């Protein structure tokens, strides 16, 4: 029974105020339930108490906290309407039982119980649970005990509901944070450029890949107007497309060539998807796929097929040319055998035979170079490789007024694929001629290096290679030529060929002083 001697009513009210203040400051549900039971012992002097909270979906009361009850009684779940607590939960009204032996619906609680008092835990006029006490003595509780217990229960119920709301909010916040981290992780890891804009075209997200593509960091991009940062997008037709997506709420896709803030021309596919809030379009997601390397590789593949076909045609033409050349050569030899041939005619016949031999050598080089297939290494004279290459490109050099200087040392043979070496030197020589812009000096030389290596040097008098370009000169798809004039794969392939031959391809250059490429190959046995 709650003690209320004279002068204790005021203390009880003060205690209830303090209870309310303390419970309002506790947001951890388990700690809150522990404090409610502790207060019930300290203020109301209960020998036992149990709090069961309502599971609305299952329509049962589940024990949340208790003292003075054995484990079996605490573990018991009460359906709505069953026992004293079940009826309180069902009706929302307190129940006082003076003698439980006369109450047929009593569900056993403490050992030897005779009386019981249960009050609802009401929060916002809704039952969320029941607070219950029992006693081994009959008539242990009176009607005067109900009001103060209801007051405490009401304060406890509000505190419990607040704690539950806080737990739900914390759980939602944690799930939101986890979802945000997951989304951020996906955006960071995606191999596509992804960003979002709001209805005013201000950037609201900017992933790592789009940073790489654009050359602009996330901090610099967020909150800025997209077209103020990238005015070139307007001329590219992108502005009209994204505004249409914002107006219509219909996704679109397009391909365009885009020059980024670094001045690089990139080819991109873009997909534009509306961001929706219900039926309203609040922004757009832009997914950017850079297809520059793919496009260049495709162009290189097409160009390679064209070159292969040209090679096959060249081989056929060379064979066809060789047949009449043989006839002409034979006729010239017959003329030279004639006696009494005038000196002028004899000189012409000798000239014809000499030119025929030169043409045969040229078509032989063309046939040799046009042959594809795997790498086939054999003993090769590097000087002869250079001379064969010059037979193929000499006309181009003369046409461009290039002054050619040859300086070959006596070299031991190297084991190499002569056709692949010719591919390297043709590329280096033609690059040099192109860099000199129609006039200049090209020096080809060979040397013996350190006793176990030979080198071939291709040096031009052109403008040289800029310092910022030099570190990238052998990278794939890197080209300083105008768009459409080069694939950026020539020097990359050259280096790979030389590496395949266990050699090195190096470059030395200063602006205004030309460029020098060195092909260094080992002297060794065939592998």
Automatic annotation (TrEMBL):
Species annotation: Desulfuromonas soudanensis
Protein name stated in the entry: histidine kinase
Cited PANTHER family: PEROXIDE STRESS-ACTIVATED HISTIDINE KINASE MAK3, SENSOR HISTIDINE KINASE
Gene Ontology terms, MF aspect: ATP binding; phosphorelay sensor kinase activity
SMART domains named in the record: GAF (SM00065), HATPase_c (SM00387), HisKA (SM00388), PAS (SM00091)
Domain PAS: 186-249
PROSITE patterns: HIS_KIN (PS50109), PAS (PS50112)
Histidine kinase domain mapped to chain residues: 316-525
Recorded catalytic activity of this chain's protein: ATP + protein L-histidine = ADP + protein N-phospho-L-histidine
Key words of the record: ATP-binding, Kinase, Nucleotide-binding, Phosphoprotein, Transferase, Two-component regulatory system
Domain of life (superkingdom): Bacteria
Claim: Hydrolase is one of the keywords in the record: no
Classification via Pfam families: GAF_2, HATPase_c, HisKA, PAS_4
EC number(s) per entry: 2.7.13.3
């Amino acid at each position: 029974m709650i003690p209320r001697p004279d002068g204790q009513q005021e203390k009880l009210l003060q205690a209830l105020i303090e209870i309310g203040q303390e419970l309002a400051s506790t947001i951890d549900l388990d700690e809150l339930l522990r404090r409610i039971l502790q207060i019930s012992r300290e203020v109301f002097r209960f020998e036992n108490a149990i709090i069961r909270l309502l599971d609305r979906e299952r329509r049962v009361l589940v024990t949340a906290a208790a003292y003075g009850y054995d484990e079996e009684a605490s573990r018991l779940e009460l359906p709505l309407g069953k026992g004293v607590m079940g009826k309180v939960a069902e009706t929302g009204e307190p129940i006082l039982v003076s003698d439980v032996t006369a109450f047929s619906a009593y569900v056993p609680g403490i050992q030897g119980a005779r009386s019981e008092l249960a009050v609802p835990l009401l929060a916002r006029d809704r039952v969320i649970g029941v607070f219950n006490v029992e006693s081994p003595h009959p008539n242990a509780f009176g009607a005067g005990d109900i009001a103060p217990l209801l007051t405490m229960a009401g304060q406890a119920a509000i505190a419990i509901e607040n704690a539950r709301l806080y737990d739900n909010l914390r759980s939602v916040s944690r799930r939101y944070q986890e979802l945000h981290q997951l989304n951020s992780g996906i955006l960071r890891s995606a191999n596509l450029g992804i960003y979002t804009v709001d209805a005013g075209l201000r950037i609201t997200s900017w992933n790592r890949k789009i940073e790489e593509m654009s050359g602009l960091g996330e901090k610099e991009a967020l909150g800025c107007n997209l077209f103020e940062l990238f005015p070139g997008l307007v001329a590219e037709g992108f502005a009209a497309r994204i505004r249409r997506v914002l107006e219509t709420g219909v996704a679109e896709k397009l391909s365009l060539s885009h020059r980024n803030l670094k001045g690089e021309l990139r080819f991109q596919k873009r997909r534009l998807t509306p961001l929706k809030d219900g039926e309203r379009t609040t922004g757009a997601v832009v997914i950017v796929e850079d297809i520059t390397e793919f496009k260049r590789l495709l162009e290189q593949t097409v160009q390679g097929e064209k070159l292969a076909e040209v090679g096959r045609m060249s081989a056929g033409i060379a064979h066809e040319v060789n047949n009449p050349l043989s006839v002409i050569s034979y006729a010239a030899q017959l003329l030279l055998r004639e006696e009494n041939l005038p000196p002028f005619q004899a000189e012409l016949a000798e000239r014809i035979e000499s030119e025929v031999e030169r043409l045969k050598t040229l078509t032989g080089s063309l046939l040799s170079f046009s042959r594809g297939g795997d790498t086939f290494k054999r003993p090769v004279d590097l000087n002869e490789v250079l001379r064969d290459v010059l037979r193929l490109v000499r006309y181009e050099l003369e046409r461009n007024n290039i002054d050619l200087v040859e300086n070959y040392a006596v070299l031991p043979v190297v084991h190499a694929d002569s056709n692949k070496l010719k591919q390297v030197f043709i590329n280096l020589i033609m690059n040099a001629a192109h860099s000199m812009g129609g006039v200049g000096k090209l020096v080809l030389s060979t040397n013996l290096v350190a006793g176990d290596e030979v080198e071939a040097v291709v040096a031009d008098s052109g403008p040289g290679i800029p310092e910022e370009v030099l570190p990238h000169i052998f990278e794939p798809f890197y080209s300083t030529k105008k768009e459409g004039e080069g694939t950026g794969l020539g020097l990359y392939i050259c280096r790979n060929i030389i590496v395949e031959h266990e050699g090195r391809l190096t470059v030395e250059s200063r602006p205004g002083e030309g460029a020098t490429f060195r092909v260094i190959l080992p002297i060794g046995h065939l592998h």
